[in-house]
Sequence to fold (313 residues):
Amino acid sequence: MEFKHQTVLLQEAIAGLNIIKNGVYVDCTLGRAGHSIEILKHLSNGKLYCFEQDEAAIIDSEQILNQNKYRNYEIIKNNFINLADELQLRQIKAVNGILYDLGVSSPQLDDYKRGFSYRYDGPLDMRMNQTASLTARMIVNTYYQAALVKLFQNYGEETFAKVLAKNIVIARDEQEIATTFQLVEIIKNSLPQKILKKTKHPAKRVFQALRIEVNQELFVLQESLRQATTLLAVHGRLVVISFHSLEDRIVKKYFQSLTQDPNYETNQQLPVISYFESNYRIITKKALVPSIDEQTVNHRSTSAKLRILERVK
Ligand SMILES: C[S@@+](CC[C@H](N)C(=O)[O-])C[C@H]1O[C@@H](n2cnc3c(N)ncnc32)[C@H](O)[C@@H]1O
Fold:
């Protein structure tokens, strides 16, 4: 079965990268190569490095890129937490632009066998990298109740974390929770009627929390962004598209921390002039969001936010 991914904020991301024809670029999240192809269209003698940890995405993207006859790219099958190491191996010291289009792709969500979606019955898996050891099934069946509460609260911002964790523990004592629909059933039976009637799916927050934990998404993002900003050449751009508030908060706070005087708070209290000059500047004071047209044709784009940072010296 063929699964398609509709690229989000494509033109905005490409404009944000401000591509120079001979530059070196990194797409940290290849997916089905939607952004990568557009970057390659703008390059002549430049080079694009693409990170991806999902084997299925790499196989599909290789086909897509070969059909388009592009040669000036390399796919790196690795987690983007290893961005700096992988570029160092290739003797790349600075790059002109780096893009992150975070989260999972539609093909990952739509393939029931991957276990990412509460809409299809499948194994509780949720690994982007299918060779990784931790699965959602392991978390749900082995984490202490208190750890599940923290997980649902911190990564899912779930109000009913306590009752959900309690009911999961009761259910797993009876029978291992192995499938997405088993978990959805427990969630539905734990929540009050008025919550179940809301438009958002009742399992959305728990599934988000599990996915973040399985793939260590927030830690990996923080660490990789740190590497990305040190790799940027002068005038180089960093473009990040995020899909939920936890990710966006990390990006926003990190960009602010790079551009604000570290003594800003103290200086506010004192009659001193700050001589702080940042090496970076935030291009997007407010995050860019998809147009209404894009949101209408691609429902999955509705929560997207795009932020851009530039290295200035
Ligand atoms: C939203 S999709 C990207 C879609 C792509 N921009 C396109 O238009 O086709 C995110 C992709 O990044 C990959 N990914 C997410 N986190 C990653 C990480 N830490 N390291 C490497 N790849 C990652 C996922 O496997 C997924 O295929």
User: Anything to note?
Assistant: The mean pLDDT is 95. The longest helix spans residues 217-231. The beta strands are 24-27, 47-52, 73-77, 95-101, 232-242, 280-282, 305-311.
